[in-house]
Amino acid sequence: MEITVSRGLRLWWVFVLRGILFIAVSVYLFSSPLSGLLALSFLFGLIILLTGIAELLRAYRDGGQRDRGWHLFIGLVDLAIGIILMAHLAASLVILRVLIGFYFLFKGITVLTFRKHPGGAWWVGIGGILVLIVVGMIWFNPIFGNTTIIVWTGMAFLITGFLNAMLGLRIRPKA
């Protein structure tokens, strides 16, 4: 199988380096789950803070736009929430768990709706119900919810790391 990539891509090593960093983060998450969970909680707050700054910059830059006030308001709200979540990691962790639970809740409901489509089967309904049970466990069992966040985030970083490293090695110019 041959990958065709423009030979102008000379930075193949960036993919390898990025892959190694993703793998290192996954190893860190699996080897130190509590501090990894706290780091994820802090990053969650930081992302919201940065989103608020971006909204404020947009409101400043788009001075003549009708929705400037809305972007200014959202920016200030995101800024405040980001600061609060970064200062109170326990609150950030609970909110993160709730948001991930909502994500899976909507996915579980979506799966349940597919059981009535042509080709849907009883096992699709059972799968949707199982997802909804997992949602309940994420929301109401903090240990399960936190473990779920660490395991799936760690797996995502590990897979992404391997894929980046493999891609970088595949597009490396032949000597």
UniProtKB/TrEMBL annotation:
* InterPro entries cross-referenced by the UniProt entry: Acid_resist_chaperone_HdeD, DUF308_memb
Q: Does the keyword Oxidoreductase apply?
A: no
Keyword hit for Metal-binding: no
State the superkingdom.
Bacteria
| Transmembrane annotation, as ranges | 12-31, 37-57, 69-88, 94-114, 121-143, 149-169
Its GO CC terms are: plasma membrane
> Which keywords does the record carry?
Membrane, Transmembrane, Transmembrane helix
Q: What is this protein called?
A: DUF308 domain-containing protein
Organism whose genome encodes this protein: Mucilaginibacter mali
